[in-house]
Amino acid sequence: MVLPSRVRERVAAVHESSALPERLRQYDGWATDYDQDVAALEYRAPHLAAASLAFAFPAAPAGARLLDVACGTGLVARELHRHGFRCLHGVDGSAGMLERARSTGLYQELRQCVLGREPLPGPAEQYDAVTVVGALGEGQVPTTVLPELLRVTKPGGFLCLTTRSNLSNLRYKRELEAELGKLEGCGAWQKLLAQEVEHWERATSEEESTQGTGYISGVVYLYQKCPVPP
User: Fold this and answer.
1) Hey, what domains does the chain have and what are their CATH numbers?
2) Stretch 172-178: mean pLDDT, rounded?
3) Which of 26, 80, 144, 192 is most buried as measured by Cβ atoms within 10 A of its Cβ?
Protein backbone atom coordinates (compact mmCIF):
# COMPACT_ATOMS: atom_id res chain seq x y z
CA MET A 1 0.00 0.00 0.00
CA VAL A 2 1.36 3.40 -1.01
CA LEU A 3 1.70 5.89 1.83
CA PRO A 4 -0.61 8.88 1.13
CA SER A 5 1.28 11.96 -0.04
CA ARG A 6 -0.46 14.12 2.59
CA VAL A 7 1.08 11.97 5.33
CA ARG A 8 4.56 12.20 3.82
CA GLU A 9 4.19 15.98 3.49
CA ARG A 10 3.06 16.49 7.10
CA VAL A 11 5.84 14.34 8.51
CA ALA A 12 8.41 16.15 6.38
CA ALA A 13 7.05 19.54 7.44
CA VAL A 14 7.52 18.99 11.18
CA HIS A 15 10.97 17.48 10.73
CA GLU A 16 12.16 20.20 8.37
CA SER A 17 10.99 23.10 10.57
CA SER A 18 14.19 24.13 12.35
CA ALA A 19 12.81 27.10 14.30
CA LEU A 20 10.85 26.08 17.40
CA PRO A 21 7.88 28.48 16.94
CA GLU A 22 7.36 27.24 13.38
CA ARG A 23 7.64 23.61 14.46
CA LEU A 24 5.01 24.13 17.17
CA ARG A 25 2.71 25.77 14.63
CA GLN A 26 3.16 22.73 12.41
CA TYR A 27 2.14 20.44 15.26
CA ASP A 28 -0.83 22.66 16.13
CA GLY A 29 -2.04 22.37 12.55
CA TRP A 30 -1.39 18.64 12.43
CA ALA A 31 -3.32 17.82 15.62
CA THR A 32 -6.69 17.19 13.94
CA ASP A 33 -5.27 14.64 11.47
CA TYR A 34 -2.45 13.28 13.60
CA ASP A 35 -4.08 10.05 14.80
CA GLN A 36 -5.20 8.96 11.34
CA ASP A 37 -1.80 9.83 9.86
CA VAL A 38 0.19 7.79 12.38
CA ALA A 39 -2.26 4.92 11.84
CA ALA A 40 -1.35 5.06 8.14
CA LEU A 41 2.31 5.02 9.18
CA GLU A 42 1.68 1.87 11.28
CA TYR A 43 3.48 3.64 14.12
CA ARG A 44 4.25 1.08 16.84
CA ALA A 45 6.15 3.10 19.45
CA PRO A 46 3.19 3.86 21.81
CA HIS A 47 2.21 0.19 21.97
CA LEU A 48 5.80 -0.98 22.51
CA ALA A 49 6.54 1.61 25.20
CA ALA A 50 3.36 0.85 27.16
CA ALA A 51 4.02 -2.89 26.98
CA SER A 52 7.57 -2.35 28.29
CA LEU A 53 6.33 -0.33 31.26
CA ALA A 54 3.56 -2.83 32.04
CA PHE A 55 6.17 -5.59 32.14
CA ALA A 56 8.45 -3.54 34.42
CA PHE A 57 5.93 -2.82 37.16
CA PRO A 58 6.00 -5.49 39.87
CA ALA A 59 2.37 -4.95 40.93
CA ALA A 60 -0.97 -3.76 39.53
CA PRO A 61 -0.28 -0.29 38.04
CA ALA A 62 -3.60 1.46 38.80
CA GLY A 63 -2.10 3.58 41.59
CA ALA A 64 1.16 4.37 39.77
CA ARG A 65 1.61 8.01 38.75
CA LEU A 66 2.97 8.45 35.23
CA LEU A 67 4.15 11.49 33.29
CA ASP A 68 3.71 11.32 29.52
CA VAL A 69 6.20 13.85 28.13
CA ALA A 70 5.48 15.15 24.62
CA CYS A 71 2.13 13.42 24.97
CA GLY A 72 0.75 14.65 21.64
CA THR A 73 -2.86 13.58 21.13
CA GLY A 74 -2.70 10.87 23.79
CA LEU A 75 -1.62 7.78 21.83
CA VAL A 76 0.61 6.57 24.66
CA ALA A 77 -2.12 7.23 27.24
CA ARG A 78 -4.53 5.00 25.30
CA GLU A 79 -2.04 2.16 25.36
CA LEU A 80 -1.18 2.67 29.03
CA HIS A 81 -4.88 2.70 29.90
CA ARG A 82 -5.26 -0.72 28.27
CA HIS A 83 -2.57 -2.02 30.63
CA GLY A 84 -4.37 -0.71 33.71
CA PHE A 85 -2.59 2.61 34.29
CA ARG A 86 -5.04 5.26 35.46
CA CYS A 87 -3.09 8.15 37.03
CA LEU A 88 -1.71 9.86 33.94
CA HIS A 89 -0.28 13.37 33.61
CA GLY A 90 0.86 14.81 30.30
CA VAL A 91 2.90 17.71 28.96
CA ASP A 92 3.41 18.92 25.40
CA GLY A 93 4.65 22.06 23.69
CA SER A 94 1.74 22.21 21.23
CA ALA A 95 -1.55 23.70 22.40
CA GLY A 96 -3.33 21.97 19.53
CA MET A 97 -2.02 18.57 20.53
CA LEU A 98 -2.95 19.18 24.17
CA GLU A 99 -6.50 20.03 23.16
CA ARG A 100 -6.81 16.66 21.42
CA ALA A 101 -5.22 14.88 24.39
CA ARG A 102 -7.71 16.56 26.73
CA SER A 103 -10.62 15.29 24.65
CA THR A 104 -9.60 11.67 25.37
CA GLY A 105 -10.45 12.04 29.06
CA LEU A 106 -7.50 9.81 29.94
CA TYR A 107 -5.31 12.39 31.69
CA GLN A 108 -5.81 13.70 35.20
CA GLU A 109 -3.61 16.69 34.40
CA LEU A 110 -2.27 18.29 31.22
CA ARG A 111 0.21 21.16 31.05
CA GLN A 112 1.92 23.03 28.24
CA CYS A 113 5.71 22.76 28.43
CA VAL A 114 8.45 22.94 25.80
CA LEU A 115 10.94 20.39 27.06
CA GLY A 116 14.48 21.55 26.46
CA ARG A 117 13.47 25.18 26.89
CA GLU A 118 11.56 24.90 30.18
CA PRO A 119 11.76 22.64 33.24
CA LEU A 120 9.02 20.08 33.64
CA PRO A 121 6.20 21.41 35.85
CA GLY A 122 6.04 20.17 39.41
CA PRO A 123 8.43 19.09 42.16
CA ALA A 124 11.17 16.48 42.07
CA GLU A 125 10.62 12.74 42.54
CA GLN A 126 6.85 12.71 42.07
CA TYR A 127 6.37 10.12 39.29
CA ASP A 128 6.62 6.35 39.35
CA ALA A 129 7.35 6.40 35.62
CA VAL A 130 8.11 8.90 32.86
CA THR A 131 7.69 8.28 29.14
CA VAL A 132 9.05 10.17 26.14
CA VAL A 133 7.73 8.47 23.02
CA GLY A 134 8.42 9.91 19.58
CA ALA A 135 9.94 13.24 20.60
CA LEU A 136 13.56 12.18 21.04
CA GLY A 137 14.87 12.76 17.55
CA GLU A 138 16.76 15.04 15.21
CA GLY A 139 15.30 18.54 15.34
CA GLN A 140 12.97 17.65 18.21
CA VAL A 141 13.83 17.36 21.93
CA PRO A 142 17.57 17.71 22.71
CA THR A 143 19.46 14.92 24.45
CA THR A 144 20.30 17.33 27.28
CA VAL A 145 16.80 16.82 28.77
CA LEU A 146 17.66 13.47 30.38
CA PRO A 147 18.60 14.88 33.82
CA GLU A 148 15.29 16.77 33.90
CA LEU A 149 13.41 13.53 33.24
CA LEU A 150 15.34 11.90 36.08
CA ARG A 151 14.59 14.82 38.40
CA VAL A 152 10.84 14.22 38.40
CA THR A 153 11.13 10.41 38.68
CA LYS A 154 10.98 8.70 42.07
CA PRO A 155 13.97 6.59 43.14
CA GLY A 156 13.27 3.13 41.82
CA GLY A 157 10.92 4.58 39.21
CA PHE A 158 11.05 3.77 35.51
CA LEU A 159 11.86 5.87 32.43
CA CYS A 160 10.77 4.63 29.02
CA LEU A 161 12.27 6.42 26.01
CA THR A 162 12.10 5.78 22.29
CA THR A 163 13.93 7.00 19.22
CA ARG A 164 14.15 6.14 15.54
CA SER A 165 17.06 4.35 13.87
CA ASN A 166 16.48 5.68 10.35
CA LEU A 167 19.32 7.25 8.40
CA SER A 168 18.49 10.90 9.15
CA ASN A 169 18.29 10.19 12.90
CA LEU A 170 21.48 8.16 13.36
CA ARG A 171 23.60 11.09 14.57
CA TYR A 172 20.99 11.97 17.19
CA LYS A 173 20.69 8.33 18.25
CA ARG A 174 24.45 8.10 18.81
CA GLU A 175 24.36 11.27 20.94
CA LEU A 176 21.37 9.97 22.90
CA GLU A 177 22.99 6.64 23.63
CA ALA A 178 26.19 8.37 24.73
CA GLU A 179 24.20 10.46 27.23
CA LEU A 180 22.26 7.40 28.40
CA GLY A 181 25.55 5.61 28.99
CA LYS A 182 27.08 8.52 30.92
CA LEU A 183 24.14 8.62 33.33
CA GLU A 184 24.32 4.88 33.82
CA GLY A 185 28.06 5.10 34.39
CA CYS A 186 27.64 7.64 37.17
CA GLY A 187 24.97 5.55 38.90
CA ALA A 188 21.94 7.70 38.10
CA TRP A 189 19.99 4.79 36.65
CA GLN A 190 20.36 1.25 35.38
CA LYS A 191 19.37 -0.08 31.98
CA LEU A 192 16.68 -2.75 31.91
CA LEU A 193 15.98 -2.88 28.20
CA ALA A 194 17.20 -1.64 24.83
CA GLN A 195 14.95 -3.28 22.25
CA GLU A 196 15.66 -2.72 18.57
CA VAL A 197 12.53 -3.02 16.43
CA GLU A 198 12.78 -3.38 12.65
CA HIS A 199 9.25 -2.41 11.58
CA TRP A 200 8.93 0.70 13.74
CA GLU A 201 6.86 2.67 11.24
CA ARG A 202 6.52 3.02 7.49
CA ALA A 203 9.22 5.05 5.79
CA THR A 204 8.21 8.33 4.18
CA SER A 205 10.95 8.06 1.55
CA GLU A 206 12.98 5.36 -0.18
CA GLU A 207 16.18 6.82 1.29
CA GLU A 208 14.93 6.29 4.85
CA SER A 209 13.67 2.75 4.22
CA THR A 210 15.66 -0.01 5.94
CA GLN A 211 17.11 -2.30 3.25
CA GLY A 212 14.20 -1.63 0.93
CA THR A 213 11.58 -2.94 3.39
CA GLY A 214 9.46 0.22 3.22
CA TYR A 215 9.85 0.66 6.99
CA ILE A 216 12.24 2.39 9.35
CA SER A 217 13.56 0.83 12.54
CA GLY A 218 13.54 2.17 16.07
CA VAL A 219 14.44 1.36 19.65
CA VAL A 220 12.74 1.26 23.05
CA TYR A 221 14.89 2.00 26.11
CA LEU A 222 13.78 1.23 29.66
CA TYR A 223 15.75 2.49 32.66
CA GLN A 224 15.20 2.36 36.41
CA LYS A 225 16.29 5.30 38.54
CA CYS A 226 18.76 4.56 41.32
CA PRO A 227 18.72 3.75 44.15
CA VAL A 228 16.65 0.72 43.23
CA PRO A 229 14.54 -0.67 46.10
CA PRO A 230 15.58 -4.12 47.35
Assistant:
1) 5-225 (3.40.50.150)
2) 98
3) 80
